[in-house]
Every structure is written in structure tokens, then in C-alpha cells.
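New to this. Please check both lines:
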Amino acid sequence: MLNFFPNPYPDEDFGSIVYRFFKLSGTPYMIDIMYKLLQVKTIRNRFILPKNLLILLNNIPGKHSYSLDSIVKEHSYLPLMKPFYTDKEYHNILKDIGMTKGRIVVGSDQLRHMISNQVRYCPLCLLEDYQKFGESYVHRIHQYKFVQVCPNHHTYLISSCPECQQPFVYYNRRLLGIPYCSNKHYLPSFAQHTVYTGALEKLIHQVADDTSFFIQNEKKIYIELIRQRYLDYALKKGYISPNGLMKKNKSLKQDFLGFFSVENLEVLGITINQIHRKFAQIYLNLQGNHYNILIHILLMIYFSGSVSNFLNQKMTDTEPFIPFGRGPWECLNELCSKYKQKSIVVCQRYCFRDVIYGTFQCENCGYTFTKKCNRETLQNMDGIYVKDKGWLWEMKEEEVYKLYKEKIQLAQKLNKRNRIQDKKIEIPERNSFAWISLLFQVYSNVKSYKETARILRTTEITVKNILIRHQIKITQLNKSESVKNIV
């Protein structure tokens, strides 16, 4: 149990909090503090994504304002990335931040190239924090490489003293607690305000503001919203055809470079090689390695002037030009609590010859199906192909199978055809859950694949495959239970 742990300041970098604890603890070596707080033996990566936070949280004494969610949201660099992760990816990263024996690969690798290697300060924030809290600290927003000015004071950031060039670093205990460098030069006197006379200065200021907007609104921004807005704007600009296919990748590249200029992009850290031939597919569709957040911010500025406008500006209705519509779409799983409700927010579209395919998955139950539409007319085609009935369906189906398990096993041993007289039997819709349940019941009575198929108006092979699939699951389950018992 720790004796104390300092309270955090607004937007304070997590490493800055640990450093303040280090100064107050009297411990001579930072690496000892790291092991004491987080049970790690390194101070590399400047706490870009801290790990083993649950160890720290369990050892902070008394009532405190810290939680795993608050540290990640208010003091780590992950919120800028969160809108570009799926919920599953984000929760996996959170799990590793809480407790892991290994390295946090996903978030850490993608964030590292965005964070400055040197600690950076706004000279006016140094003075303002000192006057308000009695000490200065490291602001998280100032550490992103492409944020070159303070969003609050519009002054250029500094990573060393302009007078003596003394750098500000973590490793040799030179983080600033007062608005002076280690040689006693008064840093607020070097504050240099941005001038909005040129395109570059305006762009630098806009990028800083939009980065701050992303961090402050990360809970309201999600990957499906960004993907949909890209689709709307790309349709409006003509980069995507009405059938959903990219048709002017080269035009987008030329327009993008012409809008910002190569020179201005290089000042922000974007090289011409990053605007490659698959630029549009990767970033507009959010596929593959699309995690350069600066490029997303610049694309949003290109389309609408700012990130806020991009996400909130009302667009002319593009619904008729989008295959399967803008969504959300209905879940078709009759067992799902959101059955027939528009709960599906993602549609993955792809094209083959004259047909566009859309794949839909319900987050609530895992039910996944595919629809088709004509590439030219965008009219939906008949038929829905179920790719995966999902975990909820399989669990419920397994429960029904177990009710008839012993009778089914006995029927397979006897394998006698017990033809029943034709009578009016109400047959549910084929492949519905009620139909599957009836299949188990009928087969346990008639003891024949062929007779079951006749009654349910399906094929013998269909009946056989359904029963065998469940027998394999039961066998695997029994094996796993036997192994647990041995262990």
C-alpha cells in the first residue's frame, strides 16, 4: 500500500503524475518507482500507454478520484485513437492497460510515431498552471508531434529553453515544476503567438484545435460514424460511384495535395510517400493500416474545413445512392432481444461482377447475414444468405438438443423407419429456431433421417448434417470436461 499518490491536474500526462510522485517520494531512482507503482522495470516510451494500472489503483490509499477509465480518458494518449478502433479492439487494449505481463502491442505501436520524443510546453501554460496549482506540469495535448501550438493560448510550443537550449526530458529529472528552465531563464517571456496571415499558420492552428476536439469528444465519435461521413462526402465529391466503389483515387490524391501543398504537409510531418496509390481505399474505407490520425484530421479539414464541421454538418440526402442505404439495419435473429430492430450500424460492402454484396452483423447476438443488390440499378435482389447464426442462436439450439439427446442417440442405434400417418402438422418457417426444435423432436420419434426429412419438407442430408453437428459439439464438450476433471 502506498502512503500517498498525487492528485491529477487537468489534461496532465500520466508520466508527469508519476514524476511528481517520484519527486515527493525521496526515492533516488525512477526505475524503482516504476516497479513500485506498476511492477515494470523500464521507463521507456514515456508512458504512451501505461500498463498494470490495476496494481496502482489497488494500492492508492483512501478515497481518490482515480479509476482505470479516468486515467485512460484524461491522462493517456489513447482517446485520440479510440474513435478509429472497433469496440472489441478498444476493450482488448483497455484490458491490457489494466493488467498484462507482456507488451501492449496494438495501441502502443500505433501511438508511438505520433508522440514527441522531447517533452514540450506552452510557455503561457507553464505560468498559468504555476499560478493556479502552485506548480507546472506536462500537458498531454502538447505532446502530439503534429500539435505545434497550444490550442488554448495559440502560442508555439517549446521543447528546450530558447535562451540556453537546455532540453526538457523525463529521464534525468528535468521536468519543469516552475516556469523557469534549469538555468533560471523565465520561459513565459519567450511566448511566441501564431500569426494567421499565411496558409501554413492557419493550418497549424486548425490541426491543434481539431486534435483537442477529438480528445474532448471521443465518446461521441465512433468508427461507424466516421466511415459513414466519409462515404457521404466522397459521394458528394464524386470520388465514390453510386454503387459504392472507389473510382477516383488519383483525383483525390491530386486534390488533397493541391489543397494543402506538399511543403505544408511536410511541416506537419506528412511525406509524399504516405499519400500512395491506395490512399483513398485505406483511409476513406478505414481498412488495413489507417491509423495515421493526422491524415484523418487533414481529410476532414479538406472535406469540410474542420473536424467539427465534418461530423456535424448536415449533408444533402445521399441515401438513394448508397447500396443497401445508410442504415442502421434490422437484426434478423428471432432469438435476439433486438429482433426486427435497427440495431446493426455497420455494412461491409464489396462487389463481384454485376452484384454488390453487403454483410451485416448484429453486435448483440453475432448473427451475420449477406444481402445482394444490382450494381447498376442498386435495387435489392431476392434472398438472404446467413453466414453465421451467432453465439446466442448456437447456445439456445444446444439447449434444445440436450432435451432430446438421449432419445436421439437411441434412435440412431435402432435406426428404424417408423413412418407416421400423414396428418396436418404445422411446419414452421424452414431453418427458423422453431423448425430446428421440431426436427429434434420428430427424429427422436421416427428414428429415421428420411422420414424426418419428409415430414419437415427438407432433404435427408440436411437433417443428417444438423444432427451430426450437434453430436460433434457434445463429444468435444465431454472431452473438455474430462480433461478438467483430470487436471
